[in-house]
Design a protein that fits this description.
The complex is a heterodimer.
Chain A: H1 2-16, H2 24-41, H3 51-65, H4 68-76, H5 85-108, E1 114-122, E2 127-135, E3 140-150, E4 153-161, E5 164-165, H6 166-179, H7 183-196
Antiparallel strand pairs in A: 1-2, 2-3, 3-4, 4-5
Chain B: H1 2-37, H2 55-61, H3 71-74, H4 92-120, H5 123-136, H6 138-148, H7 151-166, H8 190-196, E1 205-207, E2 211-213, H9 215-227, H10 236-253, H11 257-263, H12 268-290
Antiparallel strand pairs in B: 1-2
Helix pairs in contact in B: 1-7, 4-10, 5-10, 6-7, 6-8, 8-9, 8-12
The chains are: A alpha+beta, B mainly alpha.
Chain lengths: 197, 314
C-alpha cells in the first residue's frame, strides 16, 4: 500500500510539472489573437458590406504579427539568391496575397470556437514555439506558432497546422517549380493564382 | 456500478504506473544530457539536443545532394530542421492522375453527399456515429500499440474500449475521453508500427479512393481488414456499406479541411504529398517517443513529442 501511494504521488508530481508558463512569445500571439477576435466580433461591423473594412483591419494585424520577410525567405531557402531585389519584393507581396485569399474567408467564418494557448517552448534564445488549439464542437485542431525575436519583438515565421508546417509545405512546392523553371516563372504562377480568385 | 468502475481504474492505474515510473527515471536523466550537449550543431549521441541536424534522414530522403550548403539561406540553425522530410516520387505521373481522380471524386461525389448528410443529421448524432466506428477499430490500435512497445497506450486503449462499450452505450458515447478519466485515443496503425521499427516510408503512392499512401502505409489496409470486426460480416456488400457510411460521416465532420490545403497551394498535388509526408513523419516520431523499445533512439530535435519534452530555460 505504501509503494502504491508513493507511486501515486510521483505520478501526480509528474503530471503537475508539465510547465504551463506563458512568456513573451505566448503573450505576443495571445495579444494578436485577441485583437483579431475583437475585429471579428465587433457588432458595428456585421454583414457582407463590412467585409472590406474587416479585411483592412485584419491585414494590419497580420503585418504586425507575421514576419513576412522571414516567412517568405524560409520558403525559398537557397533559391532566394536567384531572385533580383525587385523580384524578391514582388514575391513577398504576392505570397502574402496568396495566403490572404486562401485563409481570409475561413477566418471571417469564425464563430465562437475557443482558442486555447497551452504551451510555450523556447527552442533557442531567439526562437520559440507557442502551442495552441482551436476547440470546435466536433474536434480540436492543434495550431503551433513558431516565432523569432527581432528588434525586441516576437513575430511569427511559421504556422504548423495539425503538425504540417506551412513553410515546409510551400518550400517543397517552390523547390519543385524552381527546379525546372526560372524565378520569373514562379512569379507568373503566383500572379495568375492571385488573379483567378 | 461505480465500484466496478473504480476497480477498472485501479487495474489500469497499476498497469500504467510502472511505465510512468520508468518514464520519470528516463526523463530525470535528460537535463544532464541537454546541459552537457549544449546548443552546438555537432552531431552527438541521440538525445534531446536542440540543434543537432538530422543528418541520417536528411541524406536518406533528400534527393538533391546538399553539397554547397549556404548557411545564410539554408537555415542550418533551425531547431526544427529534422522535420524537413521529403518523400521520393518515382511514379509521379501515375500519382498525379490518381490525385486528380480523387480530387474529382471528392468534389463531385463525396462532398455533395456529405454536405447533404450534414444538413440532414445533427452534429451530436454524427459524432456518435464517428465514436461507434472508432470504437470498433480498437483491435487494430491495440495490436499496433503492443508491437510498438507502448504498453501504457495499450492499457489506455483497452480501458477506453471497455468503458466506452459498456458506459458509452455500445461505443456511441466517449466518456473515457472526458476530463475525469482523460484516456485519450492512441491513434495509431500498422504503418506507424513499421515506421517505429525503422522502416522508412519508401516512396509516395496515391491510391484511387484511399488517397495518399506509401508502400509501408498501404499495409494498413491489409491489417485493418484482418483486425476490423465489420470485415467479417457474411453478406459481401455489408462491409462496403458500413465503410461508405463511415467515410461519409467522417467527411461530413471535416468538410473544408481538404479545400483549405488545396486552395492555398500553388501546386495542390505537391502540397498534399508534402502534408502527408510531414504528418506521417510526425506521427511516427510521437509513437517512437511513447515506445519503450525505441524512445532512446529519437533523432535530435527540439520537439519530438509535444507532451513530454519541455526544454529547461537556461
Amino acid at each position: 500500500m505504501k509503494k502504491y501511494s508513493i507511486a501515486l504521488i510521483l505520478l501526480t508530481i509528474v503530471l503537475i510539472c508539465q510547465p504551463g508558463f506563458a512568456g513573451a512569445p505566448t503573450a505576443a500571439v495571445d495579444n494578436t489573437v485577441n485583437r483579431v477576435l475583437q475585429v471579428l466580433r465587433d457588432p458595428k461591423m456585421k454583414g457582407p458590406s463590412a467585409k472590406q473594412a474587416k479585411t483592412e483591419r485584419l491585414r494590419v494585424i497580420y503585418k504586425d504579427m507575421f514576419d513576412e520577410m522571414e516567412f517568405s525567405r524560409r520558403t525559398l531557402t537557397r533559391n532566394w539568391k536567384k531572385f533580383t531585389p525587385a523580384q524578391q519584393k514582388e514575391f513577398v507581396d504576392l505570397f502574402e496575397q496568396v495566403l490572404e485569399k486562401a485563409y481570409l474567408d475561413k477566418i471571417l467564418d469564425y464563430s465562437n470556437e475557443k482558442v486555447v494557448f497551452y504551451k510555450e517552448t523556447m527552442a533557442s534564445d531567439r526562437q520559440a514555439e507557442v502551442e495552441s488549439k482551436v476547440v470546435t464542437s466536433s474536434k480540436e485542431i492543434p495550431i503551433f506558432y513558431r516565432m523569432i525575436l527581432k528588434d525586441g519583438k516576437w513575430k511569427v515565421y511559421d504556422v504548423v497546422v495539425e503538425n504540417v508546417s506551412l513553410v515546409q509545405n510551400y518550400r517543397t512546392q517552390f523547390n519543385d517549380i524552381l527546379a525546372d523553371g526560372t524565378p520569373e516563372k514562379l512569379l507568373e504562377t503566383l500572379r495568375k493564382k492571385v488573379q483567378t480568385h | 456500478m461505480f465500484l466496478m468502475m473504480r476497480y477498472c481504474l485501479l487495474i489500469l492505474l497499476l498497469l500504467i504506473l510502472p511505465v510512468e515510473i520508468m518514464a520519470i527515471s528516463c526523463r530525470a536523466e535528460e537535463p544532464v544530457q541537454a546541459v552537457s550537449g549544449g546548443v552546438s550543431s555537432e552531431t552527438v549521441s541521440p538525445g534531446p539536443d536542440q540543434a543537432v541536424p538530422d543528418n541520417r534522414s536528411h541524406s536518406k530522403h533528400n534527393g538533391t545532394g546538399n553539397t554547397t550548403e549556404d548557411e545564410d539561406f539554408d537555415y542550418d540553425d533551425d531547431p526544427f530542421k529534422s522535420e524537413r522530410v521529403t518523400i521520393d516520387d518515382p511514379i509521379e505521373s501515375f500519382n498525379r492522375t490518381m490525385h486528380n481522380f480523387n480530387d474529382k471524386l471528392y468534389f463531385w461525389i463525396l462532398k455533395p453527399v456529405a454536405t447533404g448528410y450534414k444538413a440532414a443529421v445533427p452534429e451530436p448524432a454524427r459524432i456518435s456515429v464517428k465514436n461507434f466506428f472508432s470504437n470498433l477499430r480498437y483491435p487494430a490500435r491495440l495490436v499496433s500499440c503492443l508491437f510498438q512497445g507502448d504498453f501504457a497506450g495499450a492499457a489506455t486503449e483497452t480501458g477506453r474500449f471497455a468503458i466506452n462499450t459498456v458506459w458509452g452505450i455500445g461505443g456511441l458515447m466517449d466518456p473515457s475521453a472526458g476530463k475525469e478519466l482523460n484516456l485519450q485515443m492512441q491513434d495509431t496503425d500498422l504503418g506507424e508500427t513499421l515506421g517505429v521499427y525503422g522502416v522508412g516510408h519508401g516512396f509516395y503512392i496515391v491510391w484511387p479512393f484511399f488517397g495518399p499512401s506509401s508502400p509501408r502505409d498501404s499495409l494498413n489496409f491489409l491489417g485493418n481488414q484482418v483486425l476490423y470486426p465489420l470485415s467479417f460480416l457474411n453478406i459481401w456488400y455489408a462491409s462496403l456499406m458500413t465503410t461508405s457510411v463511415e467515410t461519409i460521416n467522417r467527411t461530413s465532420l471535416r468538410i473544408g479541411d481538404y479545400e483549405a490545403l488545396v486552395e492555398a497551394a500553388i501546386d495542390p498535388y505537391v502540397a498534399v504529398r508534402d502534408a502527408y509526408a510531414q504528418y506521417r513523419m510526425h506521427e511516427v516520431r510521437v509513437r517512437k517517443a511513447k515506445s519503450l523499445f525505441f524512445k532512446d533512439n529519437l533523432p535530435g530535435d527540439a520537439m519530438p513529442d509535444s507532451a513530454s519534452h519541455p526544454k529547461p530555460i537556461p
